[in-house]
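Q: Here's a chain of 146 amino acids. Please give me its 3D structure as C-alpha cells.
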Amino acid sequence: MAHRLLVQVIFTGARVFGRAFTEAYKEAAAATTVKQAAADGKGPAKASAASRDGDIALDEACKILDVDLSGLTLDKAQKKYDYLFDINSKEKGGSFYIQSKVYRSMERIKNEMQYLEEFQKAKSKKESTGQGAAGESSSNNNGKPT
C-alpha cells in the first residue's frame, strides 16, 4: 500500500514538473521570437521593447509617480520623483524597494520623453526635406507632368 502511494506521488510530481517546464519553454521561445523580430526591425515600438527587457511599462511608471500620461511633462514627473524618493529614504524609515521603483519609473519616463523628442525632431526634419524635394522636382519640369 505504501509503495502504491509513493509511486502516485512521484508520478503526480513528475506531471506537475513536466507541465511547468513545458509552459516555461513556450514562454522563453515566444520571448526569443519577439526579441529577434525587434532586432530585425519588424517588432513592436521601442516602448514595448523596453518592457520586454525587464524595465517598467510607461503606464506603470506613471502610476507609481502618480502623474497623468496625457499632460505629462518632465517637470511634473521630476517634482513627484523628488518627493517620493525623499519620503522613502532609509533615514526616514522608507523602503529601498519602493525607492528603487520610484527611481526606475523616473528613468522610464525620461527615456520615453527623450525618445519622443528624437521622434519629433526626425519627423520635422523628414517633413522639411520632403517639402524641399517636392518643390525642386516641380520646378525642374517647368510644371509639365512626366
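Q: Can you summarize the key feature?
A: The helical segments are 2-39, 46-52, 58-65, 74-87, 96-140.
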